[in-house]
Give the backbone structure.
Amino acid sequence: MVRSLLDVASCAILLFALVTCDASERSVAVSKEPPNVLLISLDTTRADHCSFLGYGIDTTPNLKRLALQGASFEQAFAPSPSTGPSHATMFTSMYPIAHGLVKNTLTLGEEHVTLAEVLRDRGYQTASVVSSFVLDSKFGFSQGFQHYDDEFSPSEGVVHGQEWEGIPIPSGTFDRRGDHTTERAIRLLESRDRGRPIFLFVHFFDPHAPYAPPEPFRSRFSTAAKGQDELSVQAAYDAEIAFTDHQIGKLLAALRKSGLERNTLIVIVGDHGEGLSQHGWPTHGVQLYEEAVRVPLLISWPGRVIENSVVSNPAELLQLGPTILDLLDIEGQGPLFESRTWTDALEGKGQLDPHRAVFLQTDSPISRPTMVEGEDHSAREDFAIRWNGWKFIEGPQRTDALTWSKQVSAKELFDLGMDPAEQTNVLSKFPEQARLMADKLHQWKAAHSAEQSTPASLSEEELQGLRSLGYVE
């Protein structure tokens, strides 16, 4: 009887072991499935207008919830205050000065390897939905994407059939509103090949001027603006960010419904900020002050990225592609594999280099209808370095954006610790610091300079549309 009981017990133990082993193997098999990647870019979104980064108005409740599940970055910087150059850097891990797309309307060269190309060649299905003509495939941004949705219909856009800054918008449609972008992105998720991982890139344009938030966001932020019938510029801008956040919430809900959330690396990032006249310029593309280049950035991946963590040291969008590939354990050669990544900080194994220099540039292609008579309207090129609490900006002498009359220094130095709003140029007070910053900037320029990209072949109607948006002269 005792032997019989022992035999039964042994069989039970063996059966349990087999079941446990089988479950373990199934678990390992699931964990070895290549993760999906969802990359979302937010056009014209300032970091300091996102409530998940401390803004006092609740503009980003969905991003705040996502940040609790992942890591948010306090000091993330776009390389340029323009959409095209920043996205080209995100896709190639090269500075604008190196990939050559230093301003909108230029084309990203086919010789540059993109993030989408790397993932496609690793078996990913690659798809994208963009919301602005600036990212049209003719400018090279579709490289590596097997599906690239850049066609806008008049019923889906905002910038059409009206004037903007006194220049008529052509009969075509320049953009797509966020709700339509979300619908298209969700359809892509639903129709995906379930046998392969997906890399989905989604671009939202709504925070860009002309700030036309739909209801109920318009009314909600009108209340925030003390009940005024007309929204202030800042309130309208905030309402557009909130509308975009709502659309991201719908997209993330679809991701959960599809069962992809647990095995999806989610990256949400701004492409540049917005002036809001903080330094005299209302929009972007001209200046390299903090409001123009500091952007929101958060990354989430359950079980891999530390939940509710904050990365406080400086991060450049140059590092975004290499970090994604590093997290996916994809190895290779070229710029997308060379930059130091954020992986250790995301996994709680270390911190970003607090002394990393951040490099910035703008070709400043925006026309200025209110410039003083006789002023040179040609584009000017500014560069900047942000390093160890200092910011140095260098460019041609220019007209003060606040008055459009007096000339301001071609060089500016700011002590960001004492003057985070960059109000006082201390160049004359700290000439040695300025020389040190200038030397580092010039060394960087010499190391990364490349020939400028060639302009895309645009029709006169398309050029007129870009002029109306302030993108070309």
About this structure: Residues 268 and 378 are 35 Å apart (CA to CA). The longest strand covers residues 36-42. Confidence is low (pLDDT under 50) at residues 1-31, 161-171, 365-379, 465-473.
